[in-house]
Amino acid sequence: MKMMGAEFEVSDEILGTFAPIIVYWVYSGIYLMFGSFDNYRLHSRKDEDEKNLVSKSTVVKGVLLQQTVQAVVAIILFAVTGSAVEAAKNKKTSIFVLVCQFVTAMMVLDTWQYFMHRYMHHNKFLYRHIHSQHHRLVVPYAYGALYNHPLEGLILDTIGGALSFLVSGMSPRTSIFFFSFATIKTVDDHCGLWLPGNLFHILFSNNSAYHDVHHQLYGSKYNFSQPFFVMWDKILGTHMPYSLEHREGGGFEARPTKECKDD
Questions:
Q1: pTM of the predicted structure, to 2 decimals
Q2: Is the confidence at residue 35, as pLDDT, over 80?
């Protein structure tokens, strides 16, 4: 890209740092426009206004704080791995290797987030003082996806993302696409809508309805998996199946199909 007769180039590291943040707000904005689709909502507007325990302005501030920390850590990570990154830039990566890196990163991120997320629910101190902040959104919505306590955002999302980057061996250029994809998936899981033809609902069992169950009181000890698969929930007995029913007054409701039991 040329600007005023000179070449202007944005590095992969800068794009890898800021592209997921831009994607987050753009994709959330699209869902904000879809918010008027009452016939596809998992909760009514009234429930969103009355059940949530935090204002939307506070949610925005919280998300921006987490994204600031996320950006700082990403810049440090790219700086520390600089020599390896330069070597990777000069190497051609096959489609097969890229797919393997993507799948590996997805598995690493899912594994880290499942166990950290579950531990934050079962440790009463961590839940009360840290993770409960995210659950103030009883009725999730798109741009509240990353509304967390700053320490939780650092542990679950930022460190989890760094581990998936390092273990998979992906380059900064590949990370642009992976973390943008992971961001879109996370926003989609919190969108509060069940739209027909949504590819995430078709391709992933872990979707907006699955995660909505977790945000309800009856499902708080189930469906910890995020953001891609439900593997760990099924293996470790924390999977809560649900049925999607039409709600009186319009929209849908995710209803559990098994009895909830306290651990």
A1: 0.91
A2: no
